[in-house]
Amino acid sequence: MPKTVRIALNRPLRRLFDYTVPEGLALTRGQRVQIPFGRQQLTGLVVEIDSPPPEGIPLKPVTGALESWPALPPETVDLLTWASTYYQHPLGECLFTALPPALRKGRSTEVARERFWIPARSDEPLPANAHRQRALLEWVSEQPAPVSERAIRDAGFTLAQIKALADKGRISHAVPATESTTEASPVAPPRLTPAQQQAAEQLQQGRTGFDACLLYGITGSGKTELYLHYLKHQLQPTDQALVLVPEINLTPQTVARFRHYFGDRVVVWHSALNDGDRLATWLKIRNGEPVVLIGTRSAVLLPFAKLKTIIVDEEHDTSYKQGEGFRYSGRDLAVYRAHLNECPVILGSATPSLESYNNALQGKYRLVKLEQRAKEASPPTLKLLDIRSRPLEGGLSRPALQAIRETLERGEQALVFVNRRGFAPIMMCFDCGHIVECPRCDTRLTYHRRDRAMRCHHCDYQTAATSHCPKCQSDAFKPVGQGTERTEDVLSQSLPNIPIVRVDRDSTQRKGSIQAILERVNSGAPCVLVGTQMLAKGHDFPKVTLVVVVNADGGLFSVDFRAPEQLIQTLLQVSGRAGRAERPGTVLIQTCHSDHPLLKSLCNDHYLRIADRLLGEREANRFPPFRHMAIFRAEADTMEASLGLLDSIKPLAQHPGIETWGPLPAMIARRADRHRAQLILLSENRGRLNATLSGVCQALDQRKLPARLRWMIDVDPQETG
Ligand code: ADP
Ligand code: ZN
Ligand code: ZN
Questions:
Q1: Same domain? 355 vs 417
Q2: Angstrom distance (rounded) from CA 2 to CA 517
Q3: Which of 45, 71, 104 represents a domain boundary (last residue)?
Q4: At 556, which CATH number?
Q5: What span, in angstroms and rounded, lies between the C-alpha atoms of 607 and 609?
Q6: CA of residue 503 to ligand 1 center, whole Å
Q7: Under a CB-based contact definition with an 8 Å cutoff, are residues 713 and 652 in contact?
Q8: What is the largest CA-CA distance in the chain?
Q9: Residue 495: partners with Cβ closer than 8 Å, 6 or more residues away
Q10: Which stretches does DSSP call E strand in 245-305?
């Protein structure tokens, strides 16, 4: 029996706490315990057993264990311990992210069993105005089998209505219908195309144990089918698999396809799950049930007990990087986790990140290519449309509008990509030149005409839109530039009888709205989709044969070294929505820089050629992946305070082999009234960079900083502004 333990708490503290273990209590690493902490009782996780306790300090005993088994198995603790060091984030907070919210707060792992209901033989009258109860009773009576509370809620009823009916004896509990087994329905999967077959063989020829593959599969090449085929082949009936996707709500089709193969073995994990579902899913994973888990970023941290295969779909997607708190990369942790588990990992994309592609070129990953589309159509043809001296309407040039018309006349669908939601990015006075800015940020307010508001897209500020200039009262106060709403309006006017479907964060806020939109589009009637980045992600729109990019120039001259890569990825992903079924697709890219080499190569070369060139530029400038990068960021009520803090740590970071840049104000120097600055560190040597970061963090932890001065660290940052 251990005599002392070291405990991690869910606090931003870079230290652990020592306790004694009461007689008779058996504790292991990863177990949840209750401990006295000051006057409170807190939930902690056991991290070390019998490590020498600090001398001369009397230790308190652990109050008790929350369960007799470790909530986090050894492999999960190892993964998060490594991540804590790599990302320089306090271990306690890292470990607690692997627990569902209910368990973080110290609740029990007992999940109330879900109840099932059937109509009861009773004729207790319902109150005359109880319309919903009556509707619920009717609905329950129509169902062929007992219905779960979840199904009842999904059908739009509430727990209060269930309880009201139960209290009146109109419905009663039932034993659940025999739960469907984990075997999938016996539907024959499509035969793999010869190109898929070849890729499948290459994927399966992996080394035993750890094996990382970069699957470069052009858009529409059928990567999902390939993943399914691979998993079918790879997974034993008792194995667990993890499939990471960027945003699950955007791709209900993917989940449906997995269910088709793996039935109830498929479970999902994303931020919209409620606490009860999260706990239930977490327990399945922890208990080693043979799940195929489809999840977003944080799914990589779950306590799998029998993880045998990992797939990261759209591995280039920037949403794999957590932007605040524990700033980990879900993709990179997936690779490390495969390494810990000695299992294969597949990173798939039509536009691999330069980091992963470079790893493939270095021989760290095997490169598997899938360069033909699964269906008949060949990849879309991309054309640049120079709009320098063309009149535009809602951002659209005449040739673009004409192409949209012709597409609709052929009974097909078109997609228009605009990179900003709202009506227009700026409201400007044409008399005095005033542009409305956010009072709390160094940014301009976006005009949203649907609800006549001006909003900041960087904080939550909004104000009512005015028809006159707030500065000089002139009525020459107008929206400038394009947003999705404006393009939608212009298209509605030019194409009066055609449905225009807008897809952006504003139009998809309601639960289920994206599904409704996708169903409507895939019903096949002619329509025009207008939307942001959201449209670029993984969707399969068989009837879309034309894609128009309203303006490609945004990323061409950015100071962020990742901007060219991200521009090309977005343009190719959105282009990939065209011509996915039988008919070939066309992509029109409007630009004021049709002779820009990057845009020209987009039309002429395939992605890996462009990636080679971009990697060449990164190497010449010694940017990642040719050096490792980390950023210290500071935020305070004044810029002096932020810069001052970073200036004071700069000498601590100046070691041989480490280059420092800054400190400088961030690209958006003021956001929500906080002044932001950053200090960038670069090094060829990961170990040295990490040791330096750790030294600076320790020094900062010793200091007492003013209350509103904050600092954070971002290792392998996605945004350098
Ligand atoms: P990707 O994710 O690579 O862009 P998808 O997996 O969405 O491509 O596949 C593109 C389309 O091709 C989908 O409609 C899919 O159902 C279809 N498809 C994939 N593989 C096959 C196959 N072997 N036979 C017939 N259709 C296929
Ligand atoms: Zn004015
Ligand atoms: Zn703002």
A1: no
A2: 58
A3: 104
A4: 3.40.50.300
A5: 5
A6: 23
A7: no
A8: 85
A9: 404, 405, 408, 528
A10: 266-269, 292-295
Asked if residue 151 belongs to a domain, the reply is yes
Query: What percentage of the chain has pLDDT greater than the value 90?
Result: 65
CA 77 to chain CA centroid, nearest Å: 23
Judge whether 466 lies within some domain. Answer: no
Provide the CATH number for the domain around residue 55.
3.40.1440.60
Q: In angstroms, what is the span from residue 435 Cα to ligand 3's centroid?
A: 14
Contact 227, 251 (CB under 8 A): no
- 615 compared with 182, residue with greater pLDDT: 615
| Residue 494 region by backbone torsions, left for phi larger than 0, else alpha for psi between -120 and 50, else beta | alpha
pLDDT beyond 70 at 473 = yes
Neighbouring CB atoms inside 10 A of 10's CB total 20
* Ligand that comes closest to the CA of residue 430: 2
- Binding site membership of 720 for ligand 1 (Cβ less than 6 Å): no
> Given 3-state DSSP classes, what are the helix, strand and coil percentages for the chain, each rounded to the nearest 5?
35, 25, 45
Residue 569 covered by a domain: yes
For residue range 394-439, what is the model confidence (pLDDT) as tens digits?
889 999 999 999 999 999 999 999 988 999 999 999 999 999 999 9
Residue of 540, 569, 572, 583 with the most ligand 1 atoms within 8 Å of its CB, for mutation: 540
Backbone Cα Rg of the chain: 28
Count other C-beta atoms under 10 Å from residue 516's C-beta.
11
Q: What is the mean pLDDT of residues 308-337?
A: 95
Is 603 marked as a binding-site residue? no
DSSP label of 551? -
Burial class (CB in 10 A: 0-12, 13-18, 19+), 559: exposed
- What six digits make up the tokens of 289? 């049930």
Amino acid occupying residue 544: V
pLDDT of residue 52 exceeding 80, the answer is yes
Query: What element of type H or E holds 347?
Result: strand 344-349
Residue 472 lies in a domain: no
Instruction: Specify the 3-state DSSP secondary structure of 668.
Output: strand
Is-contact 258 309, C-beta < 8 A? no
Residues 382 and 530 both lie in one domain: yes
Residue 517: phi, psi to the nearest 5?
A: -65, -45
d(CA 259, CA 151): 18
| 3-state SS class at 168 | coil
Per the DSSP assignment, residues forming a β-bridge with 174 are 116
Q: Which domain holds residue 152?
A: 116-120+128-174
Q: Is 456 annotated as a binding residue?
A: yes
Strands (E), 245-283: 266-269
Shared domain for 587 and 640, answered yes or no, is no
Dihedral through CA 446, CA 449, CA 450, CA 452, nearest 10? 90
- The answer to whether residues 693 and 677 touch, using CB atoms and an 8 Å cutoff, is no
Residues 414 and 489 in one domain: yes
Residues 292 and 325 in one domain: yes
Q: Ligand 1 within 6 A of 374 CB?
A: yes
Alpha-carbon gap, residue 594 to 387, rounded angstroms: 9
HSE-CB for 516 with a 13 A CA cutoff: 9
Best mutation site among 225, 245, 258, 535 for ligand 1, i.e. most ligand atoms within 8 A of its Cβ? 225
At 642, is the secondary structure helix, strand, or coil? helix
Q: Which residues pair with 492 in a beta bridge?
A: none
**Quick check: 632 and 685 in contact, CB under 8 A?**
no
Domain match, 243 and 358 both? yes
pLDDT of residue 176: 41
Whether residues 360 and 417 share a domain: the answer is no
| Residue found by looking up tokens 């999940």 in the block | 111
Q: 302 with 222, same domain?
A: yes
- Number of domains within the chain: 5
Whole-number Å distance between alpha carbons of 703 and 698: 9
Provide the residue type at 197 as one letter: Q
With contact defined as beta carbons under 8 Å apart, do 182 and 267 qualify? Answer: no
**Of the given ranges (374-388, 447-461, 478-492), which has the lowest mean pLDDT?**
374-388
CA distance 312 to 346: 6
Peptide bond into 651 cis (omega under 30): no
